[in-house]
User: What shape does this take?
Amino acid sequence: MRSLTRSLAFLRKELVSVWRQPRLIATLVLGPFLILFLFGLGYQEMPEPFRTVVVAEQTGSAIGVDAAELDEAFGEGIDLVEVTDDLDSARQSLVSGEIDLVLVAPEDGLEALEGGEQAVFSILHSQIDPVITGSIDLLARLSVDQINQEVLTGIVEQARTELSQTDGPLADTLEEVPDVDPGLLVSPFTVDTSPVTEPPPSQAAYYAPGVLILLVQHLSLTFAALSLVGERQLGMTEMFRVSPLTVREAMLGKYLSFLVLGLALATGLALTMPLLGIEVRGPLWSFALTVALVIFASLGLGFALSGLAKSDSQAVQYSMVVLLVSIFFTGFVLPLDQLTVPVRWVSYLVPGTFGIGGLHDVIFRGQPARPQLMGALVIYGLVMAALAWLAVRKDVEPASARTVKVS
Amino acid sequence: MPTDVSIIAADLTKRFEEEAGVFDLDLRVERGRIVALIGPSGSGKTTTVRLMTGLLAPDSGSISVLGQDPTNFTSATRARIGYMAQDSVFFPDLTLRENLNFAASLFGVPLRRRHRVNEMVELLDLGDAIDRLLRDVSGGEKRRLSLAAALIHGPELLFLDEPTAGIDPILRQKFWDHFGHLSEQGSTLMVTTQYVGEAAYCDLVGVLAKGHVLALDTPDALRRRAFGGDLVDVVLAGPPTRDDLVALTRAEGIRKVTWIDDHSVRLVVEDAGEMVSTLADWAGQRGLDLERSDAYLPPFDDVFVELVNAAQDQVDEIDPEADVALAG
Assistant: This one.
């Protein structure tokens, strides 16, 4: 009973301490809610269409110059601003940022075709973001494919019309062939992708579990590290060392305190998910277990890091490094598969890697988190708890009890 | 160790640097006693307390506190000990009451402790501050909280490292009254202080300088040791002659005679209680009118200075008044 009293003293002290620091709550607790909310609110799945000027000679071009037809051919990714034959003016607009793309149609498209060569569309842009540059490349290919289809469809239609007006074996054959849409003839195959489980999430929804896990991980880790370092800086450890407090009691109290805080935070974050249109398709117990294990593992990591930190600013620096590693290596931004195997081990150094995978299972696949992920979190948490034990032991047991006595 | 002995230390040494630490400390404190460690800053008082509480391990020598080696204290033994550190250390975002409850929990005081907390609040005059955040209270109030935290679980052995520093004289007197009360109830107290005069409240006083124990005895014995015996002030109606005083020095039991003023002298004697008849005989023989003779109890500050001066050979270059608050 006395042991429990000692552990509960830490629970009460940590909760009251956090409650008494409104600015800390604002930045560390309310901040994440705001971040998640803004993220969901502001993220656009479809980027703004590229403002595009088409430069084409009025004659000799491989494409028509009707703006309406072109706009329809380009689709949603391109916003056709104008069709012009003034390349210099279009280039100037591009440099000044008035437009995003200049599409230059080949001047001698028909001649090139007649010469047995492909006619080349040139696309000019001023982007430096590799992702956007990649999008432009993809969009350009799709648009040219679309134009090629339009051209071929026109050719097929024209050929069919001309053949039907002639006599001969070809015309007879044409009569026997069913009246197939020319568009189908030039593009006979298409593709349809569909997941075998639940429908895939929107992009904003896809990132939400990652945001939740990283926030919970970061705050748990930071609170844990700051708690121990703070006590050390205050000099409270001297009282701990003289008192009957044991490492086990201190750790139980600390873990309980921040588990309560972390779960409260995670619950709040989880409740904002429906507001963002995110539905948890899997069992809620698995959702809760995943988050709880991430908090458990993160607390251990925080306590262990506190053993290395000499001041609270150093503790915050360590937690920021872990956050940075988490952003790049947990699969939050880039899929883990895109990391080479040795580097992928870095991913396994942060609990968020397993947590994000687990929440993806629960939220999007509609199934409990994979047991191997949960098992990894348990093992990770236990290893960190062992390291945390050493850090807490340093604060709770007198140095004399940890050193070899001389005589 | 017999159960009526709380602390035994023999040849206890903890060395930090060449002249810093505690060296060859021998100490025996019986249960229910108050022992004071007095000395200037850096004399080894806090190191001694930290060795006794197990916060430090000795380099050599032996120590037993409540029958155990402090470096191997069990939780049960720790629960019997109270400790007030030299610096007030608590959580700034908690109120004094919350901090006190935290300390109570650490030492295993059951959760139904309101009465006990209120007792401490009253004893330490914390009524106005108890529900204020620690960061908003004065240094004196923080010291009182530290003392309350050390006392809250009713320990049978208390280590108080400068408990009265920064406390006003009235409250200081109240503290010492309470320490005396605890002692009567069987608690043992080890108190360090720079207020040398507080040694007079103790059963045993250790005078430390540069890590060495210059003297360890009862306050009366230390006084006698410092001045070479009891002190008696003699006041005459008229001024005595030099021959009168020479005759006095030859009287039995009188060791030293010094002038105070024309009519008064101070004697160092073997036993002040046996001086009445000796002085009456001397005055009668010399035809002097003896107005009065009183045993004189010098302030402990003077005792301390005398002891340190006498030990100059032991501890070189010591300034006996350095960092010592000559308070009464």
User: Anything to note?
Assistant: The domain at 227-296 of chain B is CATH 3.30.70.1560 (Alpha-Beta Plaits). The interface with chain A takes residues 53-62, 70-73, 75-76, 78-79, 81, 83, 85, 87, 89-94, 98, 101-103, 105-111, 133, 149 of chain B (CB under 8 Å). Chain B has ten helices and 13 strands. The radius of gyration of chain B is 23 Å.
